[in-house]
From TrEMBL:
PANTHER family: TALIN (PTHR19981), TALIN-2 (PTHR19981:SF34). Residues 119-283 form the Talin 1-like rod-segment domain. Residues 1-117 form the Vinculin-binding site-containing domain. This is Talin-2. It holds the Pfam family TLN1-like_RS. Its main location: cytoplasm. SUPFAM superfamilies: alpha-catenin/vinculin-like (SSF47220). It comes from the Eukaryota. It is found in: Cytoplasm. Keywords: Cytoplasm. It comes from Ameca splendens. InterPro entries: Alpha-catenin/vinculin-like_sf, TLN1-like_RS, Vinculin-bd_dom. The lineage of its organism: Eukaryota, Metazoa, Chordata, Craniata, Vertebrata. Transmembrane segments: none annotated.
Length: 376
């Protein structure tokens, strides 16, 4: 409906121009308006029938009808102007009709926006989470370089409870997202907005907690930030699954995907909670880092095997270069096994996580674009 509505508006604007420069071309443009409106009317009936609440459906239907009347007058004036190309009164009438059509298109779009509140909120929330993930990547770079320090004289204990409380709040948001997909657009919008707000708060408190650990232990800082990054990535997938499942039947395949995404989300939040508790327990830091890395690799494998198309390009040479990271990580793992030092194990976990993730991502990109080149 958005596509056909915008097409009608663009054609109406072009008809305004052609009424002055080339009235003989108005016939083809009028035909295009008729075709686009026919498609819009078909989709409009479906949208009005499925919209929630019913008032939104009625609004969509009435505004599509009003646009239809405007299109009729526009087409009629286009025909009249073709008969009398020099008639200034008819030209003004056509221009007024074209402007009215453009205004009615905006009313249709606003009605669609009102009936699509939850989906739009999911799109906005997904964009916000994407920005958070990028920010966490930057924070990991600072931590790895040994430049992530707290501004005040504080300890990790000062942030621990706040992290745990916010993480548990995110679990509640997860439940709201899943139930919101089967509810109305209003509840879905509330759930999406709440989850975006909570993940923002969670990343902020985790970054403060990581900074309080001090730059003399960068590997533990990276483990902690990676843990909340995993949560953010899982939330992005959950929001996407929620958007796809919104309004669908309980036995629709998208609902099963939504439940799977919710399960991954809860798993990653649980992993974050375990990591937070292990930060102050030196004896379990290495084991916790390895467990988190194993779970991360499992999820990277699931994405690797999915049909989702990558959004960037690369070269086979880049993939070959990425495999070297696996060789280095393997050597580090052997050395950490021999030393049994916690810092070596944590370093191995962090290095392995990045090496495998980079390799799988690059391999998927290379194979996808090579396949596109082979299959037209």
């Amino acid at each position: 409906m958005v596509k056909h509505s915008k097409a009608i508006a663009l054609t109406a604007q072009e008809m305004m121009t052609k009424s002055v420069t080339s009235p003989d071309e108005l016939g083809a443009l009028a035909s295009q308006v008729t075709v686009d409106y026919s498609q819009l009317a078909v989709q409009g009936r479906l949208a009005a029938h499925t919209a929630e609440p019913e008032e939104i459906g009625f609004q969509i239907k009435s505004r599509v009808q009003e646009l239809g009347h405007g299109c009729i007058f526009l087409v009629q004036n286009a025909g009249a102007l073709q008969i009398s190309p020099s008639d200034s009164f008819t030209k003004r009438e056509l221009i007024d009709c074209a402007r009215a059509v453009t205004e009615k298109v905006s009313l249709v779009l606003s009605a669609l926006q009102a009936g699509n509140k939850g989906t739009q909120a999911c799109i906005t929330a997904a964009s916000a989470v994407s920005g958070i993930i990028a920010d966490l990547d930057t924070t990991i770079m600072f931590a790895s370089a040994g430049t992530l320090n707290a501004e005040n004289d504080e300890s990790f204990a000062d942030h621990r409870e706040n992290i745990l409380k916010t993480a548990k709040a995110l679990v509640e948001d997860t439940k709201m997202l899943v139930s919101g997909a089967a509810s109305g657009q209003d509840k879905l919008a509330q759930a999406a907005q709440s989850s975006a707000k909570t993940i923002t708060q969670l990343t902020d408190v985790v970054k403060l907690g990581a900074a309080s650990i001090g730059s003399d232990d960068p590997e533990t800082q990276v483990v902690l930030i990676n843990a909340v990054k995993d949560v953010a990535k899982a939330l992005a997938e959950l929001i996407s699954a929620t958007k796809c499942a919104a309004g669908k039947a309980a036995d629709d395949p998208s609902m099963y995907q939504l439940k799977g995404a919710a399960k991954v989300m809860v798993t990653n939040v649980t992993s974050l909670l375990k990591t937070v508790k292990a930060v102050e327990d030196e004896a379990t830091r290495g084991t916790r880092a390895l467990e988190a890395t194993i779970e991360c690799i499992k999820q990277e494998m699931a994405f690797f095997q999915s049909k989702d198309a990558p959004n960037k390009t690369t070269t086979p040479e880049e993939f070959i270069r990425m495999t070297k990271g696996i060789t280095i990580a393997t050597a580090k793992a052997v050395a950490a096994g021999n030393s049994a030092h916690q810092e070596d194990i944590i370093h191995t976990a962090n290095l392995s996580r990045k090496a495998v993730s980079d390799m799988l991502t690059t391999c998927k990109v290379v194979s996808h674009f090579n396949m596109q080149a082979i299959v037209p």
